[in-house]
Write a structure and sequence with these properties.
This protein is of the alpha/beta class. The chain is built from twelve helices and eight strands. The longest helix is centred in the N-terminal third of the chain and has 23 residues. Keywords: Hydrolase.
């Protein structure tokens, strides 16, 4: 993993920007745009190595979101008869950057589809970058619209049931979609939630002692400054800092109770490791069927990021997502 990073000059700690969460919003959005450029290049370089698959077709449709906006969905399905489980996939990027069309995400969706799933990628609005600036709840609303459209059209799509999944910021959106669905009364539409390296605590600028990985792993591919700045762009005024539909990690025990089965997968060398593990343990205490999973020796999203360097690790995580989706039928 480190050798692969060294080839791109990213095997050291990321540079520090002269910014804080209290800096002007436009300066922080400019920082996010720069991150989108740099991170997008890294993702594109590594994403090309996702194995090619055969027998999968991808189509595109546009639906109307909650706010009257267009939301594009990318639907990948295998050439298989019979009802299949669906994964509604929400990409990473701290809810601020990235696109469902990024090559790594697009190829990973097709890879998952080849395992026997219908995979729906949601092009949601970001809080910064090329698809911004749209702070909370714009992106969440788009993700929810994608989930609800998939469920409403399950017969035409040939679906048995659906789960929601995503990584990093997409992991937060996965979990917050669950809270939104519970709050609004449509939780029955979601069979399960699979969050990978979820970005959920909203404690990246005021690190608590109970989340030691935030400091222990700071700078391993991602850093606290980047995490804090992107989070502050998603909720610029801070008015949603304690809202579980904005940041899942702040959910109360009552909000966790009654949620569908979860998998929380974390990376050992990730600043976000402990907030994911804390959420998993709190789910269990709330009576939610949940599995906790740690991918040893990997950085934030490292199991998904490096399919060409660690193909067996990538394949194991893909099998786990697919297996979870199928187990809930």
């Amino acid at each position: 993993m480190v050798k692969a990073f060294a080839q791109l000059g990213i095997d050291g700690h990321p540079p520090t920007a002269p910014l804080t969460v209290d800096s002007p919003l436009e300066d922080k959005r400019a920082f996010a745009a720069m991150n989108e450029e740099v991170v997008g290049g890294v993702l594109a370089a590594f994403g090309q190595a996702v194995p090619d698959v055969e027998g999968v077709t991808t189509t595109t449709t546009t639906i109307t979101g909650e706010d009257g906006n267009d939301v594009t969905l990318y639907i990948s399905r295998p050439q298989t008869s019979g009802a299949l489980p669906a994964l509604v996939h929400l990409h990473g990027g701290g809810m601020a950057i990235g696109s469902a069309t990024d090559v790594g995400y697009a190829r990973a969706r097709e890879y998952l589809a080849a395992t026997g799933l219908v995979v729906v990628g949601v092009e949601f609005r970001n809080s910064a970058g090329k698809l911004g600036p749209h702070p909370y709840p714009a992106g969440l609303n788009d993700c929810a619209a994608g989930v609800r459209w998939t469920y409403a059209n399950r017969s035409d799509l040939g679906l048995s049931h659906l789960i929601v999944g995503g990584e990093s910021g997409g992991g937060n959106l996965t979990l917050t979609v669950g809270h939104k669905a519970k709050r609004e009364g449509w939780l029955n539409e979601i069979a399960g939630l699979y969050a990978q390296c979820p970005y959920i605590s909203n404690h990246w600028h005021d690190v608590p002692d109970e989340l030691p990985s935030l400091r222990e792993c700071d700078g391993y591919f991602i850093g606290l400054q980047q995490l804090a700045l992107l989070g502050s762009i998603y909720d610029p005024t801070g008015e949603y800092a304690r809202d579980a539909t904005a940041f899942a990690g702040v959910a109360t025990d009552e909000e966790l109770a009654g949620l569908p089965p979860h998998v929380i997968s974390v990376n050992e060398l990730d600043p976000l490791r402990d907030e994911g593990l804390d959420y998993y343990r709190r789910l269990l205490r709330a009576g939610v069927p949940a599995v906790g999973r740690m991918v040893a020796g990997t950085c934030h999203g490292g199991d998904l990021l490096l399919p060409g360097v660690m193909p067996e690790v990538f394949a194991a995580s893909m099998r786990d997502v697919s297996g979870f989706a199928k187990s809930l039928g």
